[in-house]
Amino acid sequence: MASLKNEEAVETSNHMEKCSLNGEVTNNVTHNGPASERNKLEAVPEFGNEIRKEFMLRPNSVFLNHGSYGSMPRCVHERQVRYLVEMESHPDTWFRYNMYGYMKATIGRVAEFMGIRMEDTFMLQNVTKAANTVLKTFPFHSGDAVLVNSLTYGAVNVAARATTAASLNGAQTLSLDINFPINSEDEVVQKYEDFLKQHPEVKLVIVDHITSPTAVVMPVKRIVHVCHAHGAVVFVDAAHVPGQLRPNIQDIDADFYAGNLHKWVFCPRSAAIIWRNPSRQHAWFRPLVTSAFEHRGLHEAFGYEGTKDDIPYICAANGIEYINRVGGLEKINEYNSTLLYKGVTYLEEKWGTKRLQVPDSMHSLYQCIVALPFIPGFSDFKETPAVTQVFMGKNLELQKLLLDKFDVQVAVVYVGQELMVRVSVSIYNTMDDIIRLADAVLALTKTEALFISDAGFIRVF
Ligand SMILES: Cc1ncc(COP(=O)(O)O)c(C=O)c1O
């Protein structure tokens, strides 16, 4: 996979099979002519209930949590299965020969989709691994610090702390507090400026482009500029960006920029990219797993980490194809953001609560956080979950209750000590989903009490 070029990928991608909307797998070279012509002929289902039939989500369930793990359409899943069958039909042919061509084509298509060069783009399973790759290869010196912030994704926060704690050179992880309401982007950028002035020991900054679970779009370009002015390397955690925002990644100018494809690019779990800024080369940047091709180029080293299933990476090309087939990112942006705005306004009215207060420019397009009304047995617990206890807390008990009792999946989160929901919308959601969420929560507000036992929930309705 040496010396990858975008043109080579386009050439190779002509031999990749694409999935059509009706779930059939077609090959645009041998059967159907150019994809653009075929697209014109295919009817695109209406977003909402019609397109939901393309997905494998449980019928009648309310799924307002695309943001956590994504969900892929059936046609991409079927393509994944066909690749699996191809792999199983002759493992040697797959691993020794064919898979590299597919991978190369996919990296080219993903790079083109993200507006970056494939030479600078590497695939790995997920953003947790991307963050660990930078953290674990970063050359810490005595007294160095990593800077995260109070909105940093839990697993990445834990990874930073574990890495610095294990560092023989006595590195440490510092955290910048970002509290709500956020009044302006300037306020956030100034916090970085002030902090870094006082902490010259910060050598690596990790900042989310879209925070999770709070769904705030951070002014990453300006933060990167401040960090560089203070001599720090920046890793942008853009787990939610591919398929949601269309940033100019080169212009943001971070040292590393990593995003998940299995969330908003409709491909199998798990697939992600890490982009290395060509104008900020760091020789220490290597894959986390050292394997046979360590001493060849970086693409070879990232491309082969021992025997594993790389089909989710390969199917990222099919996820992108699906996005194009249903009308493109602009159309998806428009549908999701319009539904989100309408839905959140409805929830605010029904619940008498407010969305998280941030400037308009810092709201994400597909996700929004809304405060819950008082729910007995939950809202009266005032918890501040520790970063090391990401998977525990009343929020997750309530999330499970909404699922078990009402078949409503939504992320319930703490912001400070307040229980809120993170509503994620995708092209298969409608206002009916939002209304069912609103009603389920209102039903819980009317319960007398909810007692929790060691054995699980004892519900009193
Ligand atoms: C901001 C952010 N970073 C990292 C991750 C981790 O993603 P993964 O579990 O796919 O590694 C997530 C997952 O939701 C996230 O929201």
TrEMBL record:
Domain Aminotransferase class V: 99-437
Pfam families for the chain: Aminotran_5
Keyword terms, alphabetized: Pyridoxal phosphate
Matches recorded under SUPFAM superfamilies: PLP-dependent transferases
Top-rank taxon, per record: Eukaryota
Protein name per Swiss-Prot or TrEMBL: Aminotransferase class V domain-containing protein
Protein source organism: Dreissena polymorpha (Zebra mussel)
